[in-house]
Each structure stands twice: as structure tokens, then as C-alpha cells.
Automatic annotation (TrEMBL):
Gene3D superfamilies in the cross-refs: 3.30.450.180, lambda repressor-like DNA-binding domains (1.10.260.40)
Domain HTH cro/C1-type positions: 32-83
Name of the protein: Transcriptional regulator with XRE-family HTH domain
Database matches in PANTHER family: BLL4672 PROTEIN, BLL4672 PROTEIN-RELATED
Lineage: Bacteria, Pseudomonadati, Acidobacteriota, Terriglobia, Terriglobales
Organism the protein comes from: Silvibacterium bohemicum
Molecular function per GO: DNA binding
Pfam families linked to this entry: HTH_31 (PF13560), MLTR_LBD (PF17765)
Amino acid sequence: MTTAKTSLGSFIRTRRERLRPEEVGLNSGTRRRAKGLRREELAGLCGISPTWLTWIEQGRTESTSAATLSRIARALLLSRAERKYLFELAGIHDPEKGEVAAESNIEESLRDAVRVIQTPAYVLDHAWNAIAWNKPASDLFQEWLAPGEVRPNLLNYMFLNPSARQFIVDWPVRAQRLVAEFRGDCRSLMDDATITSQIEVLRQSSPEFDTFWSTQNVLEREGGERAFVHPQDGHLVLRQLTLRIAHSPNMKLIILF
């Protein structure tokens, strides 16, 4: 019967067998019979015992640490997708957060893409900082996405900028939902220093945020109607669409139309 442990072991074994010794700096030799790397070779690259690696590949371990999986992933030269799959099979969180680290590599292309969208659009990173937005978005969110701002944070605007309460229709309901969405969005990043510091500052600075956070409500970030009272254009009702970025799921593209 296939289980998560046997699937993990099988995946590691197939990745080991496809890797040539010379790809990881080892001498393949002239009388080599093994397909790919030997268990002893991979174990040596990972700094673990061959017996322990055997047990992992055979699904005989109760648990495998994140540190061990990280060493295995590096030794096997796994791609980002393969590394993510490895940790998902093990049922543990990847401490290196490769997805977050990859954000800086695609920000420029996102900025170019957002500029050509004709309606308000912006991109949020894992901490809900706006890293890209277009002119329609800055025209709509004048107090948040002002020209010259560097990574303006949506939660800081919502709870620390008094103008948000007049601009966003039904602010208390929207604010409470936003906190629940943020908790659901960052559930795998609760040990991230940026996230923990951000939450602590908001809890200390905003009684409303502290109250909403303490309820521990969790929601997915969804679309739907959003109403605003714009200083020039008056009452506006727009529909929101939230899209995940394929190669960096902790980033979100939000379009209002």
C-alpha cells in the first residue's frame, strides 16, 4: 500500500538514480554498475548515515527533519517545484521558504505586466506589501499607493491610516475580514521574522487589529464587490479578482474592474 512515507522514499530514490556522479563532483569510475548515485554517496553528500537514508527511502522512518530534507534537496539538485513536492510529501514546512526568496526575481516583469492593465491592479508580496501597481490603482488608492511610496503595506494602511475608515465603505466589516484573510494567507509563514514583527507592531498600534487577530478567524482571500468613497469620484463599486502568481504563490495579483 502506498503511503506518504513510501511516496517520499520512492521520490528520493528516483531522483538519486537519475543523478550522475559527475554532476555533484564525484568520480563515476570505470567499473560502475549502480544507476545514478549510490545510497552511500548521497548519504555522504547529505551528512547522514547510509542506514538512515535507506530507512527514509524504504518508508521506515516515523519522521524526517526539515534540516535533513533540505540537505537531501540540495544534494539531489532539486528544482524549486521538486523541492516543494519533497516537503509536501514529508508533511512539513520548508524552512528556507524558497517561494518567498524567489519574489525579487520576478518583480520587474510583474511591474511591466501590471502597467498594461487598464483597470486598477496591484501586486502584494507575502507580507502584503504592494510591490507593483499601475496608475489606475494609485488614482483609486490615493492615500495608500501614492507616487514615490516604497512597498506600502495594505494592513498598515487599513489600520494605521485614519483616511481608510472614510474611504472604505463598511470599514469595520472589511477590516475584520482582511485580518482573517491575512491569517489564512500567512499560515505557513508564522515563523517568518517579517510577519511576526509586523503582527506585533499592528497589535500594539491598533486596538481593532489586536481584537480581530485575537479571534483567530481564518478566511481565504476572495473576490467580490468592493465599495469606496473616492474624494473626487464619489461612491464607487468595483469587483475584485485575486490571482496567485504561479512561480511564487505567496504573491497575489489583485485586479479591480
